[in-house]
Specification:
Layout: H1 10-15, H2 22-36, E1 45-52, E2 59-66, E3 73-79, H3 93-102, E4 106-111, H4 123-137, H5 139-142, E5 144-153, H6 155-170, E6 178-181, H7 193-197, H8 212-217, E7 243-248, H9 254-266, E8 271-276, H10 289-306
Parallel strand pairs: 3-4, 3-5, 5-6, 6-7, 7-8
Antiparallel strand pairs: 1-2, 2-4
């Protein structure tokens, strides 16, 4: 497959190339610098807090973005990506700011425990659940109107969808909207056409037992994983909150996202689908007018589900 990246996304595209070259390393460094750059708008605050985690004695770091407002605002829980084994709060600063300003709403980003020898499913998911509950339990202190949405990218999208299913099954307050941005829903995406078409952009190891999915699960042991870990395994996706599914043309996970979106639609879940053209995995991390347009789409979808179209 011939790839022609959208102008302005070249560094991001090259950073995903599997072949390790000096050009790739330079592009990856430039891409990471661009992703982590941000400007806090006038009147918006960004505050780090430490809250109690789900395990005894555990501390959980969150970051709260609050735009200037004369009224209570809805909230969005943001879950960063990084293949379950990497990433941090700084990865999503620019995105959180764009969503907070665009809705407007407050955005809470959570630094869940990364997978590895010490932590794996369900611990990262329970960290995200704890942050979700903390927002609702502290809504008066935060100035939140009680409405809450979800946004997650890549592995964060997987965690956001797992959380949506977990909340549904526990009959807890549903998110107003789940935005799944280039998320991973399945351990079987190797079978998809998009994985084969984008061979040069494959992420991670080809050895199944060494991949990020196995690290998140704590290894494969012959059993079928929980559908909270990989939502494609869920027998029934009906009754979930409204969704916005974002995919990218040059993403190995493209078809995984599109197939899951169609399952949601067939199950009667209100679902909006956007597939970015000539861009790679998690393209909305790149500062670019096309990224701005996509963030406007996310903000508009959130405003619709928050009942704030007149804002």
């Amino acid at each position: 497959m011939i790839h022609t990246p959208c102008p302005g996304y070249e560094n991001q595209f090259r950073s995903y190339l599997r072949e390790d070259t000096e050009e790739k390393r330079a592009a990856a460094a430039a891409h990471q610098a661009a992703v982590r750059a941000y400007t806090l708008p006038e009147g918006m605050t960004m505050e780090d807090r430490v809250i109690a985690g789900p395990e005894e004695g555990q501390k959980l770091k969150i970051r709260v973005f609050t735009p200037r407002a004369d009224e209570k605002l809805p909230a969005v829980l943001d879950i960063h990506g990084g293949g379950w084994v990497g990433g941090d709060l700084d990865l999503d600063n620019a995105r959180c700011i764009a969503i907070a300003a665009g809705v407007p709403c407050m955005v809470v980003s959570v630094e869940y425990r990364l997978s590895g020898p010490e932590y794996h499913f369900p611990q990262p998911l329970l960290d995200c659940y704890t942050a979700y509950r903390w927002i609702l339990d502290h809504k008066e202190e935060l100035g939140c109107d009680g409405q809450i949405g979800l946004h997650g990218s890549s592995a964060g999208g997987n965690l956001a969808e797992g959380l949506a299913l977990y909340l549904r099954d526990r009959r807890e307050q549903q998110p107003a909207l789940a935005v799944i941005n280039c998320g991973c829903f399945s351990t079987r995406f190797w079978e998809d056409a998009s994985y084969q078409q984008n061979y040069a952009l494959r992420m991670g190891s080809d050895a199944r037992g060494d991949g990020a999915e196995a690290a998140y699960l704590g290894g494969y042991d012959g059993t079928t994983p929980s559908y909270y870990a990989f939502p494609e395994l869920c027998h029934d996706v009906g009754g979930l909150c409204p969704h916005l599914i974002l995919t990218a043309e040059y993403d190995t996970l493209r078809d995984d996202g599109l197939k899951y979106a169609m399952r949601l639609l067939r199950a009667g879940v209100p679902t909006e689908i956007f597939s970015g053209g000539r861009v790679a995995h998690c393209f909305t991390a790149v500062p670019h007018p096309y990224t701005d347009l996509t963030h406007q789409l996310i903000a508009m979808a959130l405003r619709r589900e928050f009942g704030r179209m007149d804002v």
